[in-house]
Amino acid sequence: MKSSQPAHRRHGIDRRSLIAASIAVLAARQVGATAAETEIVIVDGWILSPADVAAPVFGSVRAG
Amino acid sequence: MIVDLAENSADTLPDFDVCIAGAGVAGITIALQLAARGRKVALLEAGGRDGSAASQDFYRGQNTGVENLPLDQTRLRQLGGSSNHWGGWCRPLDAYDLTRTDLNGAGWPIGIADLAPYGKKAGDVLGINAASGADLPLNGAEGNLQSIRMFFSRPPAHLGDRFYDALETTPNLSLFLNAAVAAPDFDASGRVMSLSVRAPGGGIAFQCRARYFVLALGTVENTRMLLLWNRDNGDRVANPQHLGRRYMQHLHQEIGQFVLFDDAALAPAASADEQAFMASTETYLKQAGVGAFRLYSTEMACAPLVDQLSGIASAAACSSIRTGGRLFITAEQAPNDASRITLGADVDAFGQPRAQLDWRIDKRDIDTLRQSAMEFGRYLIRAKLGRLKVNPAILDGDAPLTGWTQLPSAPGAAGHQMGGLRMSATADDGVTDRDCRLWGVDNLYIGGSGVFRTSGHANPTFTLTQLALRIADKLHERLGT
User: Cis before residue B411, ω within 30 degrees of 0?
Assistant: First the structure.
């Protein structure tokens, strides 16, 4: 049975950080940033790889 | 010969070949070079052998722009000039610093080949005796960052002390202490015939007559002097359109903090002098169009950083962190006409207007800081070294920056005073020509970093010493046999 909770809630992820990460990527694309710039994700000032934040969202590292 | 006007009056003086105002790095370098070749040189120093509150008071001025250190703290009015608080860090400009046109509309009218022949001798003058790092590519930096070699004078050479005996004993050289240059006399063709020189009490002590003259008072004071001479001579001395404009300092910031993984080859150093430096490459600057920058770091406890990072990143990203570091930058400003030196309303003890500095930081400069942080952050990811947290003001592009004067090395960066007297290929685009000679005054030269068109990230003392040696060659050539 599929959970009705959003993925980030199920995995205990702070939603504000997810939003910030998404906005950073979108903003980078909108201002014509180079491909190299969109390879990174900025969360609370940290320059991270998408894998750094994707893992807890879609994996099980921080679940439960 | 040394004559201190605070203690003695000048006897009848001969006509000199060259009269140099200002006994700092540039002035001492030019004077010794020319005297060693048999030229009769007068070297005028407004201060004494040592500093004093009364002398230093002449350097008070007003900062009207962004946060900056007081003008009487960033420069010294005494024999040796501001070398008396020099940090001793040296690096030549890169070739691209002189040729790039995207920052200032036109490159320098000289190239690296004009400076390179003076590199060895400049190192000797400045007492360079140590180096760190190497100019090498960095794995994982994709050609955007490189490791660089820095050179050091340890302990930093104070040129007044270093060359005091030579200044006293070199034949043909007359050093006048407490001898402040006042005003020039021009002949009908616009050449300078003499400079009037004030004694400490303010009265004119003597006229210094020479065939050639050099102003080597430092960027701010050179500009102030020419603004005063323009004021008194109908704006005919220095190009009034450009005089004092495009003043630059190096941007000096802590731009973030970073963590390093266990197996990272990179390591922050315990002190800034002991570590590797990295810098933007020509390839990157051509693509990004930002100012050149140099990065270095100091070690810090990583626990607070790990706490922050573990709240937002995967455990895998946080599990192998070994250490933390603070990331610092020395960055080039894009020349900005609004960033300028003018005459203020207050006057000094001689009744002359003090300098007023309106230093600006514009969006291009903030972009340089932001892009440098992004590039270092990408480098840490690509090279699997660690992760960077960027300071909010840098990331958000807030300008002007604040708080930088609290950094321990802020006085050094604030002493990197450049521009205002930029050299140019044509008279309508600058204040001095490619030989550092004032456009329109055939026998008046400018020593110091005021002639810089751009700054690169290199500390300016080495380059201004190369230029001083080059001025000495030009003058020797013009004086003939």
Answer: no
Contact A62 B378 (CB under 8 A): no
pLDDT in tens, chain B (481 residues): 999 999 988 878 889 999 999 999 999 999 999 999 999 999 999 999 999 999 999 999 999 999 999 999 999 999 999 999 999 999 999 999 999 999 978 899 999 999 999 999 999 999 999 988 888 888 788 899 998 989 999 999 999 999 999 999 999 999 999 999 999 999 999 999 999 999 999 999 999 999 999 999 999 999 999 999 999 999 999 999 999 999 999 999 899 999 988 755 555 544 444 456 899 999 999 999 999 999 988 888 888 888 888 888 777 667 788 788 889 999 999 999 999 999 999 999 999 999 999 999 999 999 999 999 999 999 888 888 889 999 988 888 877 778 888 887 788 788 999 999 999 999 999 999 999 999 999 999 999 999 999 999 999 999 999 999 999 999 999 999 8
Which chain B residues are within 8 Å of A17, Cβ to Cβ?
A: 311-312
Residue among B312, B373, B392 whose CB faces A43 most closely: B312
Print the SS3 string covering B77-88.
Answer: CCCCHHHHHCCC
Q: Does B256 touch chain A (CB under 8 A)?
A: yes
**What is d(CA B462, CA B20) in angstroms, rounded to the nearest whole number?**
20
Residues B148 and B133 sit within 8 Å (Cβ to Cβ): yes
Q: Which helix (H) or strand (E) element contains residue B290?
A: none
Contacts of B390 in chain A (CB under 8 A): 42, 45-47
Flag whether residue B225 sits within 8 Å of chain A, measured between CB atoms: no
Identity of residue B314: S
